[in-house]
TrEMBL record, chain A:
InterPro entries: RNA_pol_sigma-70-like, RNA_pol_sigma-70_dom, RNA_pol_sigma70_r2, RNA_pol_sigma70_r4_t2, RNA_pol_sigma_r2, RNA_pol_sigma_r3/r4-like, WH-like_DNA-bd_sf. The keyword Transcription applies. One of its GO terms (molecular function) is sigma factor activity. Residues 34-100 form the RNA polymerase sigma-70 region domain. Residues 130-182 form the RNA polymerase sigma factor 70 region 4 type domain. Keywords: DNA-binding, Sigma factor, Transcription, Transcription regulation. Belongs to the sigma-70 factor family. ECF subfamily. This is RNA polymerase sigma-70 factor, ECF subfamily. GO terms for biological process: DNA-templated transcription initiation. The keyword DNA-binding applies. It comes from the Bacteria.
From TrEMBL, chain B:
The keyword Transcription applies. It comes from Geodermatophilus africanus. This is Uncharacterized conserved protein YloU, alkaline shock protein (Asp23) family. It holds the Pfam family Asp23. Belongs to the asp23 family.
Length: 190, 212
């Protein structure tokens, strides 16, 4: 489990609580400390959710901005990291809904393309990771989110559940289904 | 991959959970000897290896992300942020631009002072009366920069002073009046008023200095 997830499971850090209080009162330096603390963790989630570094950066920026604007309404019901990750996931959902569907290939070209990438290409380690990225993006977003949080970002199932507004057991079920779907996609591409 | 059982009766899903999450096998003794389980585990380990590699990648936020976020926040603070005052019956929010308008009107009410809007323009040309709509409107915002945190305010203001007027005393009067007007009209606490004198201008009734 990552350091981030370990810290997410601890009770609220008093230094972080102080930063949140100061930021809520409008202290930009305190908010900058929170951004510094969580930017890597959130970017890691965003890049796996969106599959694109620029989209990930934009989404993380928007999440922090939204958090800053809504801090007066945040009274520590959850950890700051839980709250901001929830904002980020919601933004990923919204971006996903707003994105245009990929233009289909012309039929003549599509007919000549293999339905899955060639096995020999994916045999190269770097390409195998690309295959995982693509397989991840092919998952429905309600499966991708628990998998990204638990497998790729080190959150526990309990923390993932708090972020997604699900019970721990429901989170486990979704993560399990997502894992199975990912494994199926990877198996088809080998 | 299906959720099927192996010929030995073990669920493939259980093996996937074992590989992906590191959970303990349900029957370790069986697994050690069962060729079906060992083959399936080897297959799943190979399948899941690139997932582990991807998850282990050292992903860090781009170098400029913090600066980009804070620049946007500072921009928000300057333009849209509000002072918030709470009492048991509710909250009062006062937009920063309102505080800026109060500060500009206060500064303009000090004798020998005109707001400097930037680019060499002044809010009230020599010999004319101040137009409150102009001073308090958006065109006057360049003359002030307002920082708000909770109920505390910091004001930066740019002014032009009539030639011959004692600049230090005029600046002190501007500070005092802005602080007082903001307290009286908004209830906010002004912690700093930074006055920048960017120009002098001929006092009313005199022509502009030669060469200017």
């Amino acid at each position: 489990m990552s350091q981030a997830a370990v810290s997410a499971d601890r009770s609220a850090d008093p230094v972080e609580t102080r930063w949140v209080d100061l930021a809520r009162a409008g202290d930009e330096n305190a908010f900058a400390a929170l951004v510094r603390q969580y930017q890597d963790q959130l970017y890691r989630v965003a890049v796996r959710m969106t599959g694109d570094p620029q989209d990930a950066q934009d989404t993380v920026q928007e999440a922090f901005l939204q958090a800053w604007q809504h801090l007066p309404g945040f009274h520590g019901e959850a950890r700051f990291s839980t709250w901001i990750t929830r904002i980020l996931i919601n933004r990923c959902h919204n971006a996903h809904r707003a994105s245009r569907p990929t233009d289909p290939l012309p039929e003549a070209e599509a007919a000549g393309m293999p339905s899955t990438p060639a096995a020999e290409t994916l045999a190269v380690a770097a390409h195998r990771r690309d295959a995982v990225r693509q397989a991840l993006l092919s998952l429905p977003i309600d499966q991708r989110a628990p998998l990204v949080l638990s497998t790729f970002s080190g959150y526990t199932h309990a923390e993932t559940g708090r972020i997604l507004g699900l019970s721990e057991s429901a989170t486990k079920v979704r993560a399990h289904r997502a894992r199975r779907a990912l494994a199926t996609a990877l198996q088809e591409w080998r | 991959m299906s959720g099927d059982r192996l010929p030995c009766g073990v669920l493939l899903d259980d093996l996937l959970a074992q590989v992906a999450e590191g959970t303990a096998p349900r029957d370790a003794a069986h697994q050690r000897t069962c060729p079906h389980c060992r083959a399936a585990l080897a297959e799943l380990e190979d399948l899941w290896a690139p997932v582990r590699e991807l998850a282990a990648e050292d992903v860090r936020a781009p170098a400029g992300l913090l600066q980009a976020v804070m620049a946007q926040i500072r921009d928000l603070s300057r333009n849209n942020w509000s002072a918030v005052m709470s009492d048991p019956t509710g909250q009062t929010r006062i937009a920063a631009r309102v505080v800026g308008a109060v500060a500009r009107l206060a500064a303009e009410s000090v004798p020998h002072v005109t707001l400097a809007l930037g680019g060499g323009r002044v809010a009230t040309p020599t010999g004319t009366a101040a137009d409150p709509a102009l001073v308090a409107g958006t065109s006057g915002e360049a003359a002030t920069d307002i920082g708000i945190a909770g109920n505390h305010v910091v004001v930066d203001v740019q002014i032009a002073v009539d030639l011959g007027a004692p600049i230090q005393q005029v600046a002190a009067a501007v500070r005092d009046r802005i602080t007082r007007h903001i307290a009286e009209q908004t209830g906010l606490v002004t912690t700093q008023v930074n006055v920048t004198v960017v120009d002098v201008r001929p006092p009313p009734g005199r022509t502009r200095m030669p060469g200017r």
